[in-house]
Design brief:
With 507 residues, the protein is mostly helical. Helix content is 72%, strand content 1%. The protein contains 22 helices and two strands. Helix 12 packs parallel to helix 14 and helix 14 packs antiparallel against helix 15.
C-alpha cells in the first residue's frame, strides 16, 4: 500500500466517515425493521448485501442453519417485520440454497432426489399449478392471488424436500441438525414457561388482546392459551406434540448415551410445553405418532407397554376427573367430549361447505378468499367461513379432486418412508431416527386435520423436510455405522477412565 493511499484511509477514519457509515447502516436496518423496504434502506444496505452474498457462497451450510433459525422464529411476535410477506425470507434462502446446489452440481447429491416422495410432490405441485386456470367464481384468472396461495400450498413442500435432502448428506450433519432442532424446541418450551410465570411482552399481549382474544382467552378469562414463539396456540401445541414424539423415539433408540439423554430431555420439555397451549388436538397427535412408532418398531416389548400406557392415559382423561385442578388438563380433557360446542360448530360449518362444493369439484380456486370474492358472488359464503383445518382449507380451494389427490400423494410419500424404515435400514439407531421422522409427520398430519397448522411456519420445513431425510438415510447408513462405532468407542473409554478413578478412590 502506498503512503498516499495510507494517508487517505487514515484521513477518512479520523474524519469520522466510518462511524457515519455505520450509523447509516444502523438507521437503514431500523427502518427496514419498522417500515419494511424503502429506497433509503435498500441503498444503505447494498454493501451488507454484497458481503452477505460472498459469505453465502463460501459457507453454504451456514446458510442452511440460518434458514432453520429464521424458519423457526419468523412468526415470533417480538420480531415483526412490516412491509414484506412473512414467507419471503424463507423462500429467498431456500431458492438461494437450491441455486448454490445447481451451481455446484458435481458435488451435490441430486441423485438422492429421485424417489417416491419427489414424485408425489411433483404431482401435487403440477395440480396446484394447473389450478391457475380454475375460474369457479367467474371472476377471471387471478394469477397474483393464485401464486400467493400455491407458494404456501405446494411449492414450499418441494423446496423443503430438496433443501433437506441435498444439504444433510452425512451422519455428522444429521446429528448437528437434530441438535439445532432440539435447541429450538427447548427454547420454545422455555419461552412458554416464561410467558406462564413471568408474563407476556408488550407485543405478545397486543396479539392476545387483539386478534387472538376470542381463541386464546377462554372460560371467561380463567384460561389463557399460550403460544411461545409461534403464530398461535394451536400451531405451538401441535408442533410440540409432534416434536415430543420424534425426540422420545430418537432418545430410546440411540446407543450413544450423550445423544440419548439430550433427546429424551428435549422430548420431555416438548411434552410439558404442549399443555400450556391448551390445544386439545395435541393429545391425539401424540397418540397417533406413538402408534406409528409401535408398528415401525417391530417389537412386542415396545408395543405392549406403550399400548398399556396409552390405554391408561385415555381412561384417565375420558372417564375420570384426575388433574381437573389444572386448567391445561381440563382443556385437553374437553377434546374427548362429543358434545363440545367448538367441535359441533365445525361440523355445522363443514355441512354448509359441502353444499357449495357440490358444484365446484375443483374448489373455489387457490388464493381465492374473502378479500377477492365480492359480496354478490355465489361463493361469497364459502370464502368467508373459517376452515379451522388445513385439510378443510385445501378442500375449499381445490375441491374434492384436490383434497383426494393431496391425501393420495401424502399417503404415498409416507408409505415410501415407512417402507425404508421397516425393510431397508438395518442399524437400530438409524432406524429409530427414520421412525421418529415418520411418526412426527403423522402427528403433524393429524394436527392439520383438526387445525390450520400443516403449512404454517415452522411446521412445513421441519416435518416435510424431516420426512425427506428418511429417504436420504439408506445412502449413508454405512457412514452412520462407522460414526456410531467411533462414538461408542469414545464412550467406552470415558466409562473405563471413570471406573478406574472410582477404584483408585476406594483404595
Amino acid at each position: 500500500m502506498s503512503a498516499t493511499n495510507y494517508r487517505t484511509i487514515k484521513e477518512n477514519l479520523s474524519g469520522g466517515r466510518v462511524p457515519i457509515l455505520f450509523l447509516l447502516f444502523a438507521l437503514a436496518l431500523y427502518q427496514f425493521y419498522s417500515a419494511g423496504f424503502s429506497m433509503f434502506a435498500v441503498v444503505c444496505m447494498i454493501p451488507i448485501l454484497v458481503l452477505g452474498v460472498i459469505f453465502i457462497f463460501r459457507y453454504r451450510m451456514a446458510t442452511f442453519w440460518a434458514l432453520c433459525l429464521i424458519n423457526y422464529f419468523i412468526q415470533w411476535k417480538n420480531f415483526p417485520v412490516q412491509g414484506i410477506p412473512t414467507s419471503l425470507p424463507n423462500e429467498m434462502l431456500e431458492l438461494l440454497l437450491l441455486a448454490l446446489a445447481i451451481i455446484d452440481v458435481k458435488d451435490s447429491k441430486f441423485e438422492r432426489t429421485a424417489n417416491i416422495m419427489m414424485g408425489a410432490l411433483l404431482v401435487w405441485g403440477a395440480f396446484c399449478t394447473l389450478e391457475v386456470l380454475n375460474d369457479t367464481s367467474g371472476l377471471g384468472l387471478q394469477v397474483g392471488a393464485w401464486y400467493s396461495g400455491a407458494r404456501m400450498m405446494a411449492y414450499q413442500l418441494i423446496y423443503a424436500f430438496l433443501v433437506y435432502i441435498l444439504y444433510i448428506t452425512n451422519p455428522k450433519q444429521l446429528i448437528a441438525y437434530l441438535f439445532v432442532w432440539a435447541g429450538l424446541s427447548v427454547f420454545a418450551a422455555f419461552w412458554v414457561w416464561k410467558q406462564q410465570h413471568i408474563g407476556l411482552t408488550a407485543l405478545e399481549n397486543a396479539f392476545l388482546q387483539g386478534r387472538g382474544r376470542t381463541t386464546h382467552i377462554i372460560n371467561g378469562g380463567a384460561t389463557i392459551r399460550l403460544f411461545s414463539v409461534f403464530s398461535d396456540a394451536a400451531n405451538f401445541g401441535v408442533n410440540m406434540a409432534a416434536s415430543a414424539v420424534a425426540f422420545f423415539i430418537f432418545g430410546i433408540t440411540s446407543k450413544i448415551k450423550k445423544l440419548k439423554w439430550i433427546f429424551l430431555a428435549t422430548g420431555a420439555a416438548c411434552l410439558w410445553a404442549m399443555f400450556p397451549s391448551g390445544t386439545r388436538t395435541a393429545l391425539f397427535c401424540l397418540g397417533a405418532g406413538v402408534a406409528v412408532y409401535v408398528v415401525l418398531s417391530k417389537s412386542t416389548k415396545i408395543a405392549i407397554p406403550v399400548g398399556i400406557l396409552g390405554l391408561l392415559a385415555y381412561v384417565l382423561l375420558a372417564f375420570t376427573t384426575i388433574g381437573n385442578g389444572n386448567a391445561s388438563i381440563r382443556r385437553m380433557r374437553s377434546g374427548l367430549d362429543k358434545n363440545d360446542a367448538s367441535a359441533n360448530q365445525r361440523t355445522i360449518n363443514q355441512a354448509v361447505m359441502k353444499k357449495y362444493l357440490a358444484d365446484a369439484p375443483f374448489g373455489l380456486g387457490i388464493g381465492m378468499g374473502y378479500e377477492n370474492v365480492p359480496a354478490n358472488n355465489k361463493y361469497r359464503k364459502l370464502a368467508t367461513i373459517p376452515p379451522d383445518s388445513e385439510y378443510v382449507f385445501i378442500w375449499i380451494h381445490t375441491g374434492v379432486v384436490g383434497i383426494t389427490l393431496f391425501l393420495i400423494t401424502t399417503a404415498v410419500m409416507l408409505f415410501g418412508a415407512c417402507c425404508i424404515v421397516f425393510f431397508q435400514l438395518q442399524n437400530p439407531a438409524l432406524r429409530g431416527i427414520g421412525a421418529g421422522f415418520c411418526s412426527a409427520f403423522v402427528a403433524m398430519q393429524l394436527g392439520g386435520y383438526a387445525n390450520q397448522v400443516l403449512m404454517q411456519f415452522p411446521n412445513c420445513l421441519l416435518f416435510y423436510g424431516g420426512l425427506s431425510l428418511v429417504y436420504a438415510l439408506p445412502h449413508f447408513e454405512g457412514e452412520w455405522i462407522e460414526y456410531e462405532k467411533e462414538q461408542l468407542a469414545i464412550q467406552a473409554e470415558k466409562e473405563r477412565i471413570q471406573l478406574e478413578k472410582k477404584r483408585a478412590k476406594r483404595v
